[in-house]
């Protein structure tokens, strides 16, 4: 499990002001593989779209693979999307899901998971192509003709199988934080309905073609979970060290930094300027006198700051989901009563136990 990126952000004296302090967290903190995939998707799109409709040379086309022997299409069709709208919407969903589960599963496991999904998809497509090329392998000639006709017309371009596999994990393992987020004609929907609509929009972008690719990724995600010992595998040590050293120069998270609010900083600077720095000198002189007398240093406002109290409603919501109350209180305090982040942290803690 990757470390919790938000646990190490300590508020230091002189860099924050009570509850108005803000901290910066990298978008891909704890998810370097997700960053690599997102960058590769965008770079591949720019490289493959040098001319109008040039992406058609790389898309999955069962007819051209069989008739021309263009086997490279098995691999290039899963690198990036065919249009700008698909790139924006699809990459956002892919990045969101992959980053979420990389933080929960670990970088090496999510890399093995995505590799397994792609290899299983390529293998199944090869078998379907062989099956359609030899109709005698089918149960009847009618079934063979129908399957061959539908598969020969299959064309898609995009990492849809991985998106379907990741969304299968989201469907099964992401809890509903708000089961009654809104209602329509007496039917209650949770906040997850927006992600389902997001996936549906992407699945229907190319009709049957993209729906097939997402569905086959969903199917192999179930195989990954239920096949014995498959979920315990990850990327070998040599491959992980090679890829880690190769990408560390370009995909290393920046160090976290603490940002003081601009208004608070301006007020402090203005007060010190008006007072001629007298208040600062007086506090420093008092601290020096107390230290010389053998006493303790004066307690600052930052040292007197009390921990944030956990929201009772959020405590009740998370405890009803089965989490222990002490861990719920600690998670809410460390996330400033953010229920979503607290739930993700509790799930990651359960995965490490």
Descriptive account of the structure:
There is one protein chain. With 353 residues, the chain is mainly alpha-helical. 58% of the residues lie in helices and 5% in strands. The protein is built from 15 helices and 6 strands. The radius of gyration is 27 Å and the shape is globular.
Short description:
This protein has 15 helices and six strands.
Key structural traits:
353 residues, mainly alpha, two-stranded antiparallel ribbon, two-stranded antiparallel sheet, 15 helices, 6 strands
Shape: globular
Q: Terminal Cα separation, in Å?
A: 11 Å
Main sheet: which strands, in order across?
A: 1-6
- Going by helix content, strand content and strand pairing, the class is mainly alpha
Low-confidence stretches: 1-24, 135-141, 253-269, 294-304
Largest sheet: 2 strands, antiparallel
In terms of quaternary structure, the protein is: single chain
The portion of residues forming beta strands comes to under 5%
- What is the H/E string? EHEHHHHHEHEEHHHEHHHHH
Helicity, as a percent range: 55-70%
Question: What's the average pLDDT?
Answer: 74
- What's the number of extended β-strand segments? 6
Gyration radius from CA atoms, angstroms: 27 Å
**H/I helix tally:** 15
